[in-house]
Write a structure and sequence with these properties.
With 124 residues, this protein is mainly α. The chain has one domain: Globins (Globin-like). It has six helices and no strands. Helix 1 crosses helix 5 and helix 5 runs antiparallel to helix 6. The N and C termini lie far apart (48 Å). 16% of the residues are buried.
């Protein structure tokens, strides 16, 4: 059985982000949005996500930006957010334990809910 760890360092954040986005890239619903529509440049996106989650969970203030803006033009709806959140929670469950792991799941849920709410209002 795999040993679960606490999220305590930038290396833990990298493990979380890399493992999660590997799942996203294999997912038949999410991969086309990321790769075909958004045309994500993974070499620059992954370090940005390291900074984002490191800022959120470790408080290092390494992320600067507005992640919502990049999502506005994407053809995404509740189904996409649900899958994203499922894969994120699955990644946490498979690799991490503890207070920061629970915080990561709560923050991801809040982000998904906020983005869905904002996008719904923009499309009205």
């Amino acid at each position: 059985m795999k040993s679960l760890r606490n999220i305590e360092s930038r290396e833990d954040i990298k493990l979380l982000v890399d493992t999660f986005y590997a799942k996203v890239n294999r997912d038949p619903l999410l991969s086309p949005v990321f790769n075909d529509v958004a045309k994500v440049h993974w070499e620059s996106h992954l370090p940005t996500m390291y900074n984002f989650w490191s800022s959120m969970l470790l408080g290092d203030f390494s992320y600067q930006g507005n992640p919502f803006l990049k999502h506005i033009p994407l053809p995404i709806e509740k189904l996409h957010f649900d899958r994203w959140l499922h894969l994120f929670d699955e990644t946490i469950h498979e690799n991490f334990i503890g207070e920061k792991a629970e915080e990561a799941k709560k923050r991801a849920g809040s982000i998904a809910a906020m983005f869905q709410h904002k996008l719904a209002h923009l499309k009205q």
